[in-house]
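(Protein data)
===
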Amino acid sequence: MPLVPLVQIQLQTEACNAKTTRSRGLLNASMLLAPCFVCARKAPSDKNDSCRFRNAYRSIPRISHGKDHVFHLFWTLHYPVLVHNVGDKLQGRWSPQTFMASHGLEPVSMIVSRSGHEVTRRVKAAEFFSKFMQPQADSAEVIKLKDWPPSASFADKFKTHNEAFQAALPMRSYTRNDGLYNLAAHFPELPALKPDLVSGPKMYLATRDVEGTGSTALHLDVTSAVNILVYTSDEDHPGALWHIFSPTDLQGLREYLRSLPIGKALADPIHAQSIYLTPSMLRELNHRGIRPFTVHQNRGEAVFIPAGCAHQVSNTSACIKIACDFLCPESIHYSAQVAEEFRSIKKEDVLSLESTIWHAWVSLRKQRETVVASGTTVRTRHERKRLNRRRSTHGLDDQARRNQARQTGVGRERPAGLEVLRCPDTACTHAQRTFSTLDGIFNHM
């Protein structure tokens, strides 16, 4: 029986926040050009509003909190991912009133933006939050607070909120500061030498992008990141609009930006962080074959951005976001590439990539030696849960029924035309077991 390639196996996806979230899609190029997985299976139609911008944008995969195996599939392909239901696990109060009451007397650097010009003012946090909570109906002024706290550790400044954030983080093995796949987490406990991203998460606060000039300009990060929207002034609508470009689009994106008057004088029009792509500019890029991933982020949703993906954000209401950086094996090539670009334009190296990779290798090597010496098998929580299920009375009875069915051939007939899937794990290369749905593979794995 043929082995279906990993990037073409059928997916059980949760799309469009619809009640029928178990709609099937095919992970291929046609899906990436559609605004949702459901529409990827439909023929283009002007009458289908959800497909209106099929040729202008790529859809961002949407998965539930806890679906680590699905996340890993997309992350390996270097796709940005949106995880919903994160807000259900986030404890505590994250409103501007809460931060105003607890930190209102602290000085902050408030950025005031009007007509494309930004001015930074030192004010008390209470003044910032007072303006932040005011209606913007008649105001063209936008205020922002970036990277808060700017120097202190988030865990020290907001201990309770940091504990809640760490507990709610999706894909913890990547995102937490003690995650196995977060290479920066293996850095030794030497505060004077640790790279900045190990200091923990930061908050980003900004009012609605009333002029359409962008809440966060187009830029490129050396590490991967996860960004959670914890507060929005209008909970009935998405709080932020993201455009995220694949690393393969960067050359064409730079060429387009340098063709514009605003980009000609810049050493690097992306690293300058001074350009926001308007809808008309995005349409021009579409004519050049460059289409960003797009997502409307709601409160309680987390956006994962792989290293090397240029992106921009526009707030559609006043928002409070919290984000943290992480360095993962899947994106190490792009991290190295961006770090080299930073050095070429004399931009600060906040990652210390070579040193971080070295310490990660030393740490993982020691962990491996410890495991081998102990003769024990280290299993994840999911693996332990699956093993306990198999050892239960019900699991043993079920295994006996399956073994009997294999021997007699009962139940092995497949309807004509049904696709045959096999586990992509190398340990199952020679196994005879096949599956008709991806859920079967995930349960098996």
